[in-house]
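Homework help board

Subject: predicted structure for assignment chain

Our instructor gave us this sequence and asked us to write out the predicted structure in token form, then describe one feature. I got the tokens but I'm not sure how to describe them. Can anyone check?
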Amino acid sequence: MAARIARCMRDAAYGASVELAKEKGPFPLFVADQYLEAGTFASRLDEPLREAIRAHGIRNSHLLSIAPTGTVSLAFADNASNGIEPPFSWTYRRKKREADGSTVEYDVEDHAWRVYRSLGGDTARLPPYFVSALEMPAAGHLAMMEAVQPFVDTAISKTVNIPADYPYADFQGLYLEAWRAGLKGLATYRPNDILGSVLSETPEPAPQAAPEVERRKPDPMRSVIQSRPKGQLPAVVEKLEYWTQQGRQALYIVVSFMPVEDGRERAIEFFMPVGQSGESQQWITSSMRMLSLAARGGFLERALADMRKVAWDRGPVRLGTYTRPDGVAVPLWHDSEVAAIAYAIQNIIARRNGEPVAALATPPAAVATDPAPVLAGAKCPECGAHAMIRKDGCDFCTQCGHIGACG
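My token output:
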């Protein structure tokens, strides 16, 4: 029956395309001898169609495919037919993803199953002609594709449903069998507990558990941290420029605030746009998320203080300059990018509330005294400054002029 339907579709489509060719001409690359030569799809058409194509051409080079119609059937056909697919199940649950990323589940019933029930049929004991995708053996799915593939000139969307415990050797054999049958492609689906599924059979209602004598009380701190003020928040955007061994770095940081009782504003959320700093972006993104949680939990100051203690072996980081009491501007060093960013955030919050800027990462006396801009680099063995750079192929200290191996 499937082969008869597919042949009818093929002949009707090719006949209509020949009629269009009479009116508008064949498709631009049509060459009758090549199109109808042995081995092509058109060479298997019935003789009257081949003669019509040779005489008038054909408007479309390809005409037929069997598309995935599961959702289309639900939306427009009351779940009456899945095309070449058997019904997934007579009743099942379907997950639909909403615009906000959440999912909503719907109960779905097959049209034929519902009609059978409305006519008084016993759905608990269905007749043998009710066969679902989960009940059909894998060989049955392949047989359907083999039946209709000769009459489809492009591709078929068809899923071979197999159970979760299907043996691997049999699973591998499906593809070999499909290849031997001359199928163009094969899609298989095996449900698993890790990835989940879009469709799932309606589970049996679970027995009601006995009510708990004492329910666990919700953690108030958890609810505070997970909550975020609704609506638009006032925010500031600042560009941070700092220097590392890799050279000059620039980041934009967004700090959102929430008004508090005493007229001040409390930092509540931190964000840095994606794609600013290459490989550093991962730890920066995670740091911003953790700071946002700390801000909502009430321990932001502690988190920023801890960040300023972070040091790594990439060398110090210079974030701007510090003006000493005698008016001399000297580079402001930090132990890491994490510490430099935390210091910058502390100053953003302080300026927002009209407070003094944060304390230095190191005492002024320990900071280099050269007021000239210094490019951060490797540690100089002569003067100890992190100012060794590559210049003309040699190591050169921008602080004291020391030359490395080249000297």
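Reply (TA_rk): Your tokens look well-formed. For the description, you could write something like this. Confidence is low (pLDDT under 50) at residues 361-375. That's the kind of observation they're looking for.
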